[in-house]
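Subject: Sanity check before I submit

Could someone independently write out the structure tokens for this chain? I want to compare against mine line by line before I put it in a report. The sequence has 399 residues.
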Amino acid sequence: MPKKINLDKVYQYLLILLSFLSILTVFGANLIIVIIVLTWLLSGDYKSKYTEVISNKLLVASIIFFCLHLLGLLWTEDLKWGLHIVHKMWYFLLLLPVLHSIVNRKYIRHYIFSFLLAVAFTEVVSYLVWFEMISPVKFATIINPTPFMSHISWNPILTIAIYIVMHEVFFNKALTKLNFFLYSFFAITMSINMFITGGRAGQVMYFAMIGVLIFQFFNAERVKSLMVIALVIPGIFFTAYNTSDLFKYRVDKTIAPFMVMDAFHNSSVGYRINFAKNTFELIEKNIFLGVGVGDFPSEYKKINLKNTPNARNTTNPHNMYLLVWSQLGLIGLISFLSIFYYQIKLSRNSSSRFIRDFGIALPILFSIILLSDSYLLGHYTTLVFMLFSSFLYKDFEKS
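---
Independent answer below. Compare away.
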């Protein structure tokens, strides 16, 4: 007789593979996601699954956030765009609860190692392109070598990888000398890669990550932490500014609009400021319920035509808080923020320093970059956020 399939082991192999493919290929990652979700949906034991999901406040908050998007279809006129947005948010309804219910504590290091292996592979390809040893791959150029995704997604993901590795260097006393050297070297090469690629939001996230790590190292002693931050972050910034032409160019391009006001609407910073101003006006008129999930593009166009007719329109204000608030009102914004609240609250109860520290760092870092774009609508950054959230906030003590 054939042996009974060990479903847990199948899940773990799939999760390890998903962790590796998550930043390398959209098709490959989505294929694994479909296999995992379908297996979960068809494998029975629904009462146990329901109990596990409903007992975790983060998962409940995530599902409520998605359901508000469904409700937001009721007062939207552009149903087609509304369904497009709902489709992008399905991770909050199904993927996070599914991944949360199948992660296994014994395999956490395997998930993380698989993710770091994919980052290392991407980094190697990036450097090979940068040194002109191979031809540019997919999204990469010699000037901006991000091979498998745009710099918009790569730099935030790189920041997460650097945090994980640096946390091991600073806090894992069991590291051998060889591993300490390898982890340190990996952190340095990733940090250099951070500034030869052009993702400004990810670079801001990187500096915030350094600050978070320093606070965690000094156990939140404010004076010591702030003194070290005041030395380390400017040191890294000016070193990068004086050694990386791309980073210097991107910084200068960010500052320039503030120096020449007429240049505002011809820059990415100017666009974002204009998007924010017009979106705030949209919010003021629909503060509690929003305009509906599908009507942001059309409603924004009306306000833009009135206030800044020569500026470009947008389907996204490049600020996830403003997007959610304008679509779903204050109720939707509070629901969205509750996800970060429960992440931090749940992580504080963990007995593992790594889980506790990373569990606090993840929502803090994502909450910062969401000010500059809707990173929880994009494939790569959303998937990475869900992958780590699936095991950072699971109550293993009850399992």
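---
OP: Matches mine. For the report I'm noting this point. The first helix runs from residue 7 to 21.
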